[in-house]
Predict the 3D structure of the following.
Amino acid sequence: MGTVPSVRGALAPILLAGSLLAIACDPGASPQPAAQSPTAATAGGADAEVLARMAEADAADGTVDRVIRKCMGCSLHMDGDPSHKATAHGYEAHLCSEQCLYRFERDPDAVVMSMKPPE
Ligand SMILES: [Zn+2]
């Protein structure tokens, strides 16, 4: 009847490994694959797709002057406010609110790429 301590001793590492495995592949952490690397994009120059979308957004406000007057955080459905402005890739972007400005300043490329083109 001296087997109980040795069984518990053998189980402990298995339980530990199991919990580490659960942390390593937590399905709720990131649903989309981390294919893009924002730091690489900003370091090595803007992504062509991002630049193309920003050029479209620039033209969408009626003037091609590298100032985007519609809020890119709202897919250009809102007018931007010059007091909420940020710059990215040579463009000046006017955002509609503190929240949109914050999102844009944190990751301009992500905001640009998540814009839905106006119908
Ligand atoms: Zn907005």
Summary: Residues 47-114 form one domain.
